[in-house]
Amino acid sequence: MSATPSFLMFMKTWLPHLWGSGFGCLLATVGLLAVWAKQRRLLGSRGNLPPSPFQFPLLGCIPLLGSLPHEAFARWAKKLGKIYSCRLGGKTVIVLNDAEIIREALFQPVFSGRPRMYTAEVTGKRLGITFASDETWSIHRTFAFKTFRALGVGQGKIAELIQEEAEKMVNNISQLNGQTFCTTQIIRTTIGNLLASILFGERFDYDDPETHAFFNKMNAVVRYFGPCGILNIFPVLRHIPSIAASFRLVTDALDGAGQYINRLIKHRGGSTYPRTVFDYTDAFLNAQDKEREMFGKPKLFTDQQYMGSARELFFTGYDTTTSTLRWVSFLHPAISSTETERTSSVSHE
Ligand code: HEM
C-alpha cells in the first residue's frame, strides 16, 4: 500500500492549520491525548470487528485517505473484503463495500439512525430531515416523500419539467459554439431550477442579485463543507483559527441561504388555508395552518422547520444530482470519446 504519498498529502493539508496558532496547538495536543487514552482503553477489546487496514495511533487511517478517500476505501476493500473496519480518529467505522450487503443492512431498523455529528448539529440545529431527532425525522421525511409523490416526482409531470430544463441547458451549451466549458455551473443551474420549481414553485431569475447570492452561498457550502468534516472526528479543532474560518464560511452561507428561503415563505404567508398545492411550500403551509387550527400554534411545522427542511432538500438534491450527472457525462461513451478527442487534439496543438 502506498501509505507515504497519502500521509504526505495529509501532513501538507493539515499541518499548516495545526501549527497556525499556538493556542490551537495546545488544544489539539490535549484533545489528541484524550482521544489516545480513550483508544488505548478500547483497543484491548476489538471484539468481533472485521479486519482493518494499517492504523496510526490516535488518527487511525485518516492519514492514509489522501485527497481521494473513495479510492483508498476501494483499495482496502480489494485487500480486506466486502466488510471491513477502520478507525477515523476516535471513531471506529464499519465499511460495507457491496451493493447487496448495503441494501441488507439498510433494511435493518438498527441501522436506520445516524451518528450525531458536530458540523450537522451546529448547522442544522437538529431541524430539517437528515439529522433531525427521531420523531421530527420520521414525520418530515414521510411528509416530503408524500408531497413529492403528489407533485409528480418520478412520474410524467416532473418528467415534462425536466425535459423543459434539459432543453434550456442544451440551448445554452449550443450557444457556446463548440468552445470548451466546465460542465459544473451549467448543470448546477439546471438542477437548481428544477429543485426551485418543486420546492418553491419558481424558476430562478438569474438577473436577480438575490438569486445570484443564494447560488453563491450554496456553492460555498459545497466547497467548504467537505474539508470541515475533520471537525466531526476532532471537534476540538474548531478552536484552530483557520479551521474555524472555513467552518464560519459554511455557517454564514447556510444562514444567508436560510434567510433567502424565509423571505420566500413570508411572501406566501397571507394566502388562505387550504391552498391548492403547486409545490412543497404550499403543502408545508397547509400542514402549518392545520396545526394552528388544532393546537393554536404550529408544533412540528414551524417556520424554522420549514427553513431547515427546504434548505436541506435544496442542498442535498443540488450537489448529489449535479455530481451524478457530471460523472455520467464523463463516463458516457458518446461524450467521453468526444472529450478524449478534444483533449488529445488540444495536447497536440
Ligand atoms: C442522483 C442524485 C442523488 C443521489 C446520488 C443521492 C444520494 C443519497 C444518499 C446516498 C443518501 C443517504 C445518505 C446517508 O444515509 O448517509 C441520501 C439521503 C437523502 N437524500 Fe439524496 N440523493 C440524490 C438526490 C436527492 C434529491 C434530488 C433530494 C431532494 C430533493 C435528496 C434528498 C435527500 C434527503 C432528504 C436524504 C436524507 C434522508 C433521510 O435521512 O431519511 N436526494 N441521498
From TrEMBL:
Question: GO cellular-component terms in the record?
Answer: cytoplasm
- Where is the chain membrane-spanning? none
Q: Which InterPro entries match?
A: Cyt_P450 (IPR001128), Cyt_P450_E_grp-I (IPR002401), Cyt_P450_sf (IPR036396), Cytochrome_P450_fam2 (IPR050182)
Q: Which GO terms describe its biological process?
A: organic acid metabolic process; xenobiotic metabolic process
Keywords on this record?
Iron, Metal-binding, Monooxygenase, Oxidoreductase
Q: Which GO terms describe its molecular function?
A: heme binding; iron ion binding; oxidoreductase activity, acting on paired donors, with incorporation or reduction of molecular oxygen, reduced flavin or flavoprotein as one donor, and incorporation of one atom of oxygen; steroid hydroxylase activity
Cross-referenced SUPFAM superfamilies: Cytochrome P450
Which protein family is it in? Answer: Belongs to the cytochrome P450 family.
- State the name under which the record lists this protein: Cytochrome P450
